Amino acid sequence: MDSQHPVPSYHSGFRNHVSSQALPGALPEGQNSPQRCAYGLYAEQLTGSAFTAPRGHNLRSWLYRIRPSVVQSAYQPLDHPRWVTAPTAAALADPNQMRWDPLPLPSEPTDFIDGLTTIGINGDAAGQNGCGVHVYACNRSMQRFFYDADGELLIVPQLGGLVIRTEMGVLEVASGEIAVIPRGVKCQVRLAEGVEAARGYVCENYGAPFELPGLGPIGANGLANPRDFLTPSAAYEDAPGEVELLARFAGRLWVTRLGHSPLDVVAWHGNYAPYKYDLARFNTINTVSFDHPDPSIFTVLTSPSDTPGMANIDFVIFPPRWMVAEDTFRPPYFHRNLMSEFMGLIHGEYDAKAEGFVPGGASLHNCMSPHGPDAETFDKASSADLEPQYQAATLAFMFESRYPFQTVPGARDADFRQRDYVDVWSTLRSHFDAERP
Ligand SMILES: O=C(O)Cc1cc(O)ccc1O
Ligand SMILES: [Fe+2]
């Protein structure tokens, strides 16, 4: 794997059992642990579920690497005050609707890990439920390496493409695409060629790994189709030299030192691996008659909780689409939901907000906190001509959770928080006239 110019290649399909080797014959045939592996490699299993998880949820891969992962120094704790993990007493569940401008781009040299800033958390990482919602802004490629024992990382680039080098191969991820790095998989996040600064969102999923939602009456096809998910082919580097491997474990950052690159997996097989997905491939389904369907029709991935139908986290997008609904208030309706909603905007405009929700920004509407279109959007949509209309310039998303998000002090007190957000609804007035049905 050439660190400057990686040429990624991919296997198509969602969570398939993949066999991938960067050298011929590196994967043992018909068994996992031969007495001696080809090329003098070490065999190492990485599990993403308990050994005894039901077959449909059983996740593991076998890695054939130059040195086993145990060849590393003792872990030492490292400070990272802006990265917060649930639970912590400092985080507050707050019913106030909140909104943020984009996280400012750094002026100091900042890599992806330095640039992570937590907005909200819920659940309990040690209990394997809930998530951390972070934004990142960085201007340097990571020289160090990293894995997250607390959760899986769903990375949503907003500005600037990333090259995510992992133990299992390389993912190139542009704005408009997403990447998922499973719990424990070692990686290094670099800026794509020509990119000077990158910004985006991360959902650190402490719970069940993301899976495709059931389609019910939609049928066998639609929404995010399995073959559009791409898992990297094996790629390795045999690179000696002192490096740092960071580990997120139990809400703290740790560092261990190695005398070689940890991206030394020559071959692997299994169903526990990183993947990427281009959101433009989403097959959007919506009304062709009337009314505004609930946004669950836009679910890309879901992390189930132990109550069927109540997600630990749903990842939902609002992609470019036709609006054709007749006699309908077309933007999102006013609502109060059981589920808590964190939203971000990748590009364009969001149809519920005329102003203030900008690409790179974020909003939070917690359990039962009322929200919906701002006053300007309501006025326009109530009298708009209901021609078919193509909403081209838009790509918003939502991390929706059954657990209310608790905002962390760094996000509540941030300069980039819009403290007057609630006023976007203040001019909605009564149109009630008991004499006029
Ligand atoms: O903007 C939101 O709050 C998200 C959202 C969108 C929608 O189309 C319907 C309900 C909903 O919560
Ligand atoms: Fe909502």
From TrEMBL:
Question: Does the keyword Iron belong to this entry?
Answer: yes
The reply to whether Iron figures as a keyword in the UniProt entry is yes
The record's catalysed reaction(s) read: homogentisate + O2 = 4-maleylacetoacetate + H(+)
Sites where the protein binds Fe cation: H335, E341, H371
Question: What EC number(s) are associated with this protein in UniProt?
Answer: 1.13.11.5
The cross-references to CDD domains, in alphabetical order and at most eight, read: cupin_HGO_N
Where on this chain does homogentisate bind? Y350, H371
Q: Could you tell me the keywords of this UniProt record?
A: Dioxygenase, Iron, Metal-binding, Oxidoreductase, Phenylalanine catabolism, Tyrosine catabolism
One MF annotation (Gene Ontology) recorded for this entry: homogentisate 1,2-dioxygenase activity
Entry's Gene Ontology cellular component terms: cytoplasm
The Homogentisate 1,2-dioxygenase C-terminal domain is annotated at: 281-432
The coenzyme or cofactor needed here is: Fe cation
Q: Which SUPFAM superfamilies match?
A: RmlC-like cupins
- Looking at the record, the residues that make up the Homogentisate 1,2-dioxygenase N-terminal domain are 10-279
Record-annotated active site: H292 (proton acceptor)
Classification via InterPro entries = HgmA_C, HgmA_N, Homogentis_dOase, Homogentis_dOase_bac, RmlC-like_jellyroll, RmlC_Cupin_sf
Q: Which GO terms describe its biological process?
A: L-phenylalanine catabolic process; L-tyrosine catabolic process
**Major enzyme class:** oxidoreductase
Named in its record, the pathway it takes part in is: Amino-acid degradation; L-phenylalanine degradation; acetoacetate and fumarate from L-phenylalanine: step 4/6
Task: Extract the NCBIfam families matched here.
Answer: hmgA (TIGR01015)
Role: Involved in the catabolism of homogentisate (2,5-dihydroxyphenylacetate or 2,5-OH-PhAc), a central intermediate in the degradation of phenylalanine and tyrosine. Catalyzes the oxidative ring cleavage of the aromatic ring of homogentisate to yield maleylacetoacetate.
UniProt record similarity statement: Belongs to the homogentisate dioxygenase family.
State how it assembles: Hexamer; dimer of trimers.
Name of the protein? Homogentisate 1,2-dioxygenase
Per the UniProt entry, what species is this protein from, by scientific name? Franzmannia pantelleriensis
Q: Tell me the classification of the organism that encodes this protein.
A: Bacteria, Pseudomonadati, Pseudomonadota, Gammaproteobacteria, Oceanospirillales
